[in-house]
Write a structure and sequence with these properties.
The chain has 13 helices and no strands. With 300 residues, it is an all-alpha fold.
Length: 300
């Protein structure tokens, strides 16, 4: 009697992690103005420290019942990624004190091609051709969003600080995908946030920063950005359990698109180049989802 082998149905893939990361980029795109405003009354390290302290307290409230399960991987991985976050946030903030925001945005966008290269070099995970095509589209879109001025860069202190921040951002994305699987997102995020807060607040007096000048807008910025940071970090730790680093990077490239849209709604002009750049980034995200769909439905 012959038997007929039935191929298993392809596993159902949830879009929620990807959509959650799109939501993260929306929040990122709306935070620049708040940071820029807050730095009028606070030094960079003090502001980052206060912002992450609020975020850590909120994360503690959210996952307090799960703390008993904190394990060695979550603790050590959280501290390691937290140290990298400390450098990325503070180096980028310090760099903004020396260069234009458009130059900073362009240089920060270099993490898009860096992530797949780091994945390949550190973890021997080579992205497929669709993923590379998505990276290329996203980077081309970032170039258009930066504008012609963004391509004329002299490497001074601000530029080097921002490039260093960009490398740490790429490393964080890679490590999140590496450590997140099997870890509790809330506990990992709490350790990361607390690490950044403690290191930043300890660095502020060593860097010679004056105490913050407490103003209503500074308090609102600290509380609002602290809440946003807690949400962002928990979502990233959860979503990157299943979203590979390269695909997450392409989605993260949506940040300047939301920033440009918010600026346009606030009355800023949008050139044809910026509209084209935004369109390329959106296309890159759609291409990355096509890549994920093909990977999920590939025959075993």
């Amino acid at each position: 009697m012959s038997t007929i082998a039935l191929s298993a149905a392809p596993p159902h893939r949830s879009w929620l992690p990807d959509l959650s990361l799109v939501g993260v980029t929306l929040i990122w795109g709306g935070t620049f103005l708040a940071v820029q405003t807050a730095l009028q009354w606070s030094g960079a390290f003090a502001f980052v420290g206060m912002r992450f302290a609020v975020a850590a307290l909120l994360a503690l409230l959210l996952c307090r019942r799960q703390l008993a399960g904190l394990n060695r991987t979550e603790l050590l991985g959280g501290v390691f990624i937290g140290v990298i976050l400390y450098f990325s946030y503070n180096l980028q903030t310090l760099g903004l004190g020396h260069i234009a925001s458009s130059t900073s945005a362009f240089l920060t966008g270099l993490y898009v091609p860096l992530v797949p290269l780091l994945q390949w070099g550190l973890f021997r995970q080579r992205p497929g051709w669709l993923a590379w095509a998505g990276v290329a589209l996203a980077f081309a879109g970032l170039l258009l969003l930066a504008g012609v001025d963004g391509l004329s860069i002299r490497l001074g202190l601000g530029e080097w600080l921002t490039i260093a921040a960009t490398v740490t951002i790429a490393l964080e994305i890679c490590l999140l995908s590496r450590f997140a699987a099997g870890c509790n997102a809330g506990r990992m995020a709490l350790v990361q946030l607390a690490t950044v807060a403690l290191l930043s607040l300890a660095t502020a007096p060593l860097a010679g920063e004056a105490p913050p000048q407490w103003q209503p807008l500074l308090l609102v910025s600290v509380l609002a950005l602290g809440a946003a940071t807690a949400l962002i970090q928990i979502v990233m730790n959860w979503a990157q359990k299943t979203v590979p680093a390269t695909r997450a990077t392409i989605i993260y490239a949506m940040e300047p698109v939301w920033g440009g849209l918010i600026g346009w709604l606030a009355g800023e002009a949008m050139s044809a180049g910026k509209v084209g750049g935004a369109a390329l980034i959106v296309a890159s995200v759609l291409l990355s989802q096509l890549s994920a769909h093909k990977a999920t439905h590939a025959p075993a």
